[in-house]
């Protein structure tokens, strides 16, 4: 089977483990060359396990300096970047958070990292007449995240930003997609706090998928240039319910939260 991803030069952020590592492995299966970027030095082992088409870069993918160094590294190893998966993410503080520092950290990783990478990549993609930006947001970016305001808000921002990119640069040959899963079996789900409201909300709302299952769904959708990627298809119906009667949806979510708290 031929893949439109064969020979593509790809960056995946947050690729030491979880969804990012699974995306990198699936991309390599389809014949792409991949730079795996992560703060965690474990990314070196992950890349080494994927063979000669995988290259590890260790650093912060949310800072301007980090992104510029990552792009330079990818240019050097791959000779350019055709697709950029802005996948690194953190769960951030519970509830409202306590201070600006709590919010700054999650805004940087879940939102500004996407903006900063696009600012660096879009001008060159416009010149080349092609390029593809894939953001890992979350079902929380369409619906909400019980127990975490900052996660909800930054994931909404990620959906809004990807949507804007997809609309604005379509005629330049640039594509964008956004991935909006519910539960996926990764460290982040554990970090949501065993037994806490955020974790209970995710694990009781639907099936918890394995990262490898998500990666196949995502790459199939990217090959079709589909914007909204829903590894849990039921999210579409939930999103429709929210859009069709916002107040009813809010009352329902509030009752759902109360039920989770009783458990
Ligand atoms: N697991 C889920 O249930 C779920 C559901 C919806 C969306 N997501 C999203 O999927 C994405 C991947 O998360 P995951 O579930 O695989 O969790 P994960 O914790 O396994 O992976 C996230 C990776 O991002 C890296 N990272 C964090 N900040 C970074 C930074 N500043 N620079 C470089 N790397 C950084 C971490 O070191 C980690 O390896 C995230 O954006 C997350 O919000 C996850």
From TrEMBL:
Official protein name in the record: NADP-dependent 3-hydroxy acid dehydrogenase YdfG
Signal peptide: none
InterPro entries: NAD(P)-bd_dom_sf, Sc_DH/Rdtase_CS, SDR_fam, TAT_signal
GO molecular function, one term: oxidoreductase activity
Domain of life: Bacteria
Organism: Brevibacterium siliguriense
Keyword terms of this UniProt record: Oxidoreductase
CDD domains per UniProt: SDR_c (cd05233)
Annotated SUPFAM superfamilies: NAD(P)-binding Rossmann-fold domains (SSF51735)
UniProt record similarity statement: Belongs to the short-chain dehydrogenases/reductases (SDR) family.
